[in-house]
């Protein structure tokens, strides 16, 4: 974070002038109580909406109509450093009090969960990362930054960089999947998009990397559960996305709820100070997750709130989200000598530096109305992102795409719910802005009709189902999970299709008509049987406001699907966790009974990370490996041997055959996405630096070990070629 000398001087002089109360206040993100039957912190209100206790519409109604008590008096006294607000009028009103009525006029930093788009909601991260399109990831982040900054939001609690290997964990939807390399690329792109365009203060926000760290490794995929892992696993898998984002200049970090090897991240000095700041060079501030300082008491790591607050601050946690424990207890902890004034000053300085970097001292307010939210350009980007995030999983006999005049029956309750396109954590989404699948498909295919057969929230209506099966020449079944089934606090022990949706698949199995399933879900699902019962399967995730159009255009071929899976699909729930880059065992799954597998299912995932089909056919040619002093390069031609222009994702995996620690069976080390016109070919070059062929051991050392490596270039589909090479470093 670069500040001018003048700005640095201003910060120092402010710190000299501040009273202890004013300093501690900077470390406080005020909890907001809302009058009108919802006397709960704002963060909890958001959680209620996220977990389905409150519908999105109810949430917005409360936000719009409730009389809000935003601690105006405390802001006036300079006792609040940050708040969460999502409307420009409130943001301006409170900021004005902070600037004009508090003694030192220090602006508030206003944060919000802007996870995958602000008003223009784009695909959930799990889907968008599957585009393998770095530029797209950057542009959607930039759009969200601009839309929200114009509404007075300076700080996004995003990107979420939790590696998720266990599909039972509901928060799989919020991150970019199971692979550290892809998620690191995603992280870098998101930081660039959110933070880098500083040509105007209205163009950027502070990013917040979360949840630091290991949150996705919660035991059994149960949210908030304990996490244990070796140093080597932490460094090789869970830390790389955070390091990539820090290297890209991320300005804030959120500590995770979970304990890591016995120490809750909120009070984990080794993670928040030794590693994050001293080793990785992070120079921004760290915020707790909502109410997490108080939860240290429940964790049993602190006997009371004062101890929890002192431990958190000492660990390197600068801002308290939601509990006001810093506000209430830090003075006492200073008086008793549990913490030092220097520690308080350090935290204050880090927060003031981010406020300065955001331009808040010069531009505290927003002008109304200035936002380009939901503009035609933004909607076009949302459509592009949605289309590029769709994964074609199955397409028997090239059933798809369908001619525009096809007579189609659409069934499945999710198809007709515009509220379900948003995905979890889209708190600024409004149902009226979402395009349902029925809206999109009936527009694209004039002879299509939706039949209200039920199957998810309501029982199947047999008579209407029979009518639907009789009407169309092609039957489209939309199935999956409600938005409230993924995101925070939505772990599921059984990740098969909820409700009676499996029965709908069964009804299609022996039908004498082509059938297509469109999946809408925020996690991989256990759908092996169902996939076998239909002719084509499109994984559409939760694609944001333009979902209906994107899916319809994919069915018609106006969009040629090109995304890949960011997470492996288990065959059954009991197989979780299943992920492609697992360590070798001494007994890899084989024909013998005494190998590492389950007795009752086929070994391996149903679909692996990196898998996805296209309407085009590609062929690899002239694949050559070149070794230079610094790198390994793979050069190849990708030919489109079909009649349809398409996009191909060329992936480079490396297998380190022998190591001083057991190595993963393979790891992604590079990718390129290319557009190839029909009957054309494009040269592709993939490169991996030799220094990136090492791994971290349990002593925290990076090891680059000589030996045999296998380099595999593949499209995650029918093309694949491997080279074995002995390397000395
Ligand atoms: C809890 C969630 O874990 C976190 O992701 C979110 O940013 C905060 N609440 C604030 O809403």
TrEMBL record:
EC number: 3.2.1.21
Family annotation (InterPro entries): Cellulose_Degrad_GH3, Fn3-like, GH, Glyco_hydro_3_C, Glyco_hydro_3_C_sf, Glyco_hydro_3_N, Glyco_hydro_3_N_sf, Ig-like_fold
SMART domains, per database record: Fn3_like
UniProt-listed Gene3D superfamilies: Glycoside hydrolase family 3 C-terminal domain (3.40.50.1700), Glycoside hydrolase, family 3, N-terminal domain (3.20.20.300), Immunoglobulins (2.60.40.10)
Alphabetized UniProt keyword annotations: Glycosidase, Hydrolase, Signal
GO MF annotation list: hydrolase activity
Catalytic activity: Hydrolysis of terminal, non-reducing beta-D-glucosyl residues with release of beta-D-glucose
Domain Fibronectin type III-like, first and last residues per copy: 648-717
Domain of life of the organism encoding this protein: Bacteria
Family: Belongs to the glycosyl hydrolase 3 family.
Xref: PANTHER family: LYSOSOMAL BETA GLUCOSIDASE, PERIPLASMIC BETA-GLUCOSIDASE-RELATED
UniProt-recorded name of the protein: beta-glucosidase
Species for this entry: Streptococcus caprae
